[in-house]
Design goal:
436 residues; mainly alpha; 3 domains; 78% helix
Length: 436
């Protein structure tokens, strides 16, 4: 009897110690997970400036991974395939940077564009409101809403009007400053009329604060060389992330899967594989879709008479932004309408398109691209890729932009795709393995 009692006491002690160890292990795992999550959150928040280059490098490596496997099936050595992809990646980045640099206007062109836009905007406003007639009393819309429209136009002109320093630079460029081409007489007349109108508006309001003179305490901006060097230091990390992830060959994934307890090992592998496939389909599909949208914009805008540089700029901007619902068409319409406002002449192969109806032609192009995107590009290219509810997209974009700025705006949708597919696959596999 004492022996049986001692054995039961021993068994109960072992069970108790096992339970204590299990609870201790769970507590340690929980505390460790919390510390890791907090640490990762702090690091991500602190490293926001390099967040976008790292993610773009990761996405590029993710997209190019099937190409590397294709090279290996074609008996190309892995090292040679990696070097080839890395060379193409760097060369593509250099070409894109050069093209963007050539499209973005310099100081002289920016002053001219700003002057032209302000003059044409005010001219169009006077025409729409009926203020360009000999009477100058305005139409019926202006009689009812004229004061409100005038206040709105004054705020726009306050933003567009050249400051004293910019006006002095404009006059210098007019005379061939820094070896630049002379500013045309027509644009100089725009400049003089804008300046007279600015002075008139300031006198009507009884204050010179409507103008935007450079404040004495305002520090000069960074030089172009400084801006370029800062951008270079920030984005130089992107090609190295791309290279290291191609060299990785699954070691990172094996490391994290190895941390999973044996009970959940098969579930973890299934989740990783299915999430990997879903993300790959989405990224490759959205890349092809955005490329097709951008090319379509370029072709249509050239057909209606846009300059090639401007068509490429709008195509690249709207194509990239097309990953965010409705942003691509909005950018194409906004930039296109702004260009139509300052267009002096139109060299379109379609004879019925003139500077007067160029804005209508731009709206038609945007509608055509949207129809092609919704009716052909998305169903065919994206296919069975992950579908997202519009409300989730809207909330994700707003939250991402508020937390991480431009990087959060761009990466919000891919992040939602990853989280959605990971949660869905995880719970499905847990049910299939009767874990929950």
């Amino acid at each position: 009897m004492p022996t049986g009692l001692n054995r039961r006491k021993t068994d109960s002690t072992i069970v108790m110690r096992t339970g204590v160890r299990r609870q201790t292990r769970r507590l340690v795992f929980s505390i460790t997970a919390i510390v890791v999550i907090i640490t990762l959150g702090v690091l991500i928040w602190s490293l926001r400036p390099i967040f976008l280059p790292i993610i773009i490098g990761m996405l590029a490596a993710y997209i190019c991974a099937p190409l590397l496997k294709l090279f290996m099936r074609m008996k190309v050595p892995r090292a040679a395939g990696i070097l080839l992809l890395f060379g193409v990646f760097v060369l593509t980045g250099i070409i894109i940077a050069n093209q963007i640099g050539s499209i973005i206007p310099g100081e002289r062109d920016r002053l001219v564009l700003q002057t032209r836009f302000q003059y044409k905007l005010n001219e169009k406003y006077r025409s729409l409101m009926g203020l360009d007639t000999p009477e100058g009393s305005g139409n019926i819309v202006y009689r009812y809403f004229g004061p409100d429209f005038d206040r709105f136009m004054r705020s726009i002109n306050s933003f567009l009007s050249l400051s004293d320093e910019e006006s002095a630079l404009f006059i210098k460029y007019r005379e061939g400053y820094r070896g630049q081409p002379l500013i045309e007489d027509a644009y100089y007349r725009y400049f003089l009329k804008n300046r007279d109108a600015d002075i008139s508006r300031a006198m009507d309001r009884g204050a010179e604060k409507e103008r935007r003179p450079l404040a004495p305490e305002e520090a000069p901006g960074d030089s172009p060389f400084t801006v370029v060097m800062n951008a270079f230091q920030l984005w130089i990390i992107m090609p190295f992330v791309f290279l290291f992830l191609l060299i990785d060959d699954g070691e990172i994934r094996r490391f994290f899967v190895g941390l999973v307890p044996n009970r959940y090992f098969e579930v973890s592998l299934a989740v990783v594989d299915k999430v990997n496939k879903a993300i790959g389909n989405y990224l490759r599909g959205i890349l092809l879709q955005c490329s097709l949208v951008g090319i379509t914009y370029c072709v249509l805008l050239v057909l209606i008479g846009f300059e090639l540089k401007m068509a490429i700029l709008i195509g690249i901007s709207a194509g990239l932004a097309n990953a965010i619902p409705l942003l691509g068409p909005a950018i194409a319409l906004g930039i296109g309408a702004s260009y139509a406002l300052i267009a002096e002449n139109v060299n379109s192969i379609l004879p019925f398109i003139t500077p007067e109806n160029l804005t209508v032609a731009i709206a038609v192009c945007v509608l055509l691209v949207m129809a092609l995107d919704n009716g052909f590009y998305q169903p065919v290219v994206l296919g069975s890729a992950v579908k997202l509810h519009p409300l989730a997209v809207f909330i994700g974009i707003m939250g991402g932009s508020m937390l991480f700025g431009f990087a959060g705006l761009i990466l919000a949708i891919p992040t939602i795709v990853v989280i959605k597919e990971m949660v869905y696959t995880l719970f499905r596999e847990l049910k299939e393995y009767y874990i929950i």
